[in-house]
């Protein structure tokens, strides 16, 4: 927390706005919309809820197809299943670790030839890094398929001067406890389509028809953000830029200290993009270093250092068994390779210099000895 949260929480208590609506919710929505530069934002209970609403707004139904990045957290794709629709996964490419435009193009071509284009493409910006949005937008426009930009991990990042999360039809942010700013749990759906977001608010509050009696004609959800939590969000947004700077500094120091070790490669930052470096991620080439990611994770854990593998690709998950994944190139799945070799180092915005020194020292010991 930044220290200012209690002020906004107290406002909520003093005015008795203890509900999933109120002045903090309205203000937080306006502040996020202004910050990222869109017409409208809707505060919701989670990033997952925001993705679900976006799919509902795009009329995704049973047996519809939705394309989604494979290298991501399961929450990107779960809402596809909520709607009874069918996911198709798209591989990553090496320059951003995100959706491969090449694989996407092939998948859309196949879908077009089958006469069944997807209702939406969910593009994820992994660990803060934007996907190749120009290429992806242009391919999707060709087939007239809308994009949902899953920017849950990339709030504060930019792509060619534009805020991450504003390059598709809808953008999604998460304020879960692990994200760069948090409301403990929460999310935001953003768009320039004001009418669509009006409908999002309607769907997120049980889809109550405009009648005095309780009347409902369509399925609704209970997805709005609490006015107390929106207060937390307002104070957090004030320090977002500082958080981005902190995470980028952590990355820079890890990079300076470790980049020269043979077999180590840090997650790249695409030209004309700025990543919030939510997590510092890198790959370890076992053939060069003689050490696997698995053994590094274990060794760090013994030192009480919590590092993580990269997300397990969704097409490899038991939940999505049998779901097709379009690879980046015919004989290489980039996401599988990143999963085999990828590692996320401790990257909390409040990490001390000494803590980071300890991680760096361990990494050097683990890797140098065997080089
Ligand atoms: C965290 C996350 C989500 C889900 O956000 P919640 O607020 O936890 O529901 C979705 N997609 C990605 C890529 C995430 O990292």
TrEMBL record:
Ranges in a coiled coil: none
User: Single GO molecular-function term?
Assistant: transaminase activity
The family database entries (SUPFAM superfamilies) matched by this protein are listed as: PLP-dependent transferases
Q: Name one Pfam family in it.
A: DegT_DnrJ_EryC1
What does the UniProt keyword field contain? Answer: Aminotransferase, Pyridoxal phosphate, Transferase
Q: Which InterPro entries match?
A: DegT/StrS_aminotransferase, PyrdxlP-dep_Trfase, PyrdxlP-dep_Trfase_major, PyrdxlP-dep_Trfase_small
Name the family: Belongs to the DegT/DnrJ/EryC1 family.
Question: Known PANTHER family for this protein?
Answer: DTDP-4-AMINO-4,6-DIDEOXYGALACTOSE TRANSAMINASE, TRANSAMINASE
Name listed for the protein in its UniProt record:
Aminotransferase class I/II-fold pyridoxal phosphate-dependent enzyme
Source species: Metabacillus halosaccharovorans
